[in-house]
Amino acid sequence: MDAQADRPAGVTRPGRRASRRTVATRAALLVVPAVVFVAGTFLVEPVRVESTSMEPTLRAGDHLLVDGRAYHDALPRRGDLVVFDESGAPLVKRVVAVAGDTVAIEDGVLEVDGRAVEEPAVDPKTVDGMYYGPARVPAGTVFVLGDNRRHSVDSRQFGPVPVARVTGRVILRWWPRPGRP
Description:
By secondary structure, the protein is an alpha+beta fold. The chain has helices at 3-6, 16-42, 124-127, 155-158, and strands at 44-48, 63-67, 81-86, 89-98, 102-106, 109-112, 115-116, 132-136, 141-145, 161-162, 166-175.
């Protein structure tokens, strides 16, 4: 008697391939969380954006991955999006000046060492009439600003940020996905 004839249509007997798939699935269910845990502990940290201070670059509710080891052997550079601790809360801002630079804002235009800085993420209409400085950035610190200058608490209010308080560099916005409305 044929074993195939006794089975209902569409039902097949699991073979080696199905068993291997099951083993691979089980292994993935164990290994993937372990890898994510280790990566989160040693390499990257998830951070959620809580304010509108970085719009349009980042929006409230965005989830980021932050490289916590980015500045162990290097210093933040102009243009980096960094996460740092301010009064017990993580903040995300853009580094606009580093130690030794002189920073100023003249009628909404950011100047570093007397030269205007091009800022494609900043809407010039929202910063018109804004002034700050000039101020020299002390050694061991960075000057950070939000891209949404009218709605950002940043180095203009709390001063330059000590590099020791910078916990990492933003490497990826993973939720909502980039390019969303």
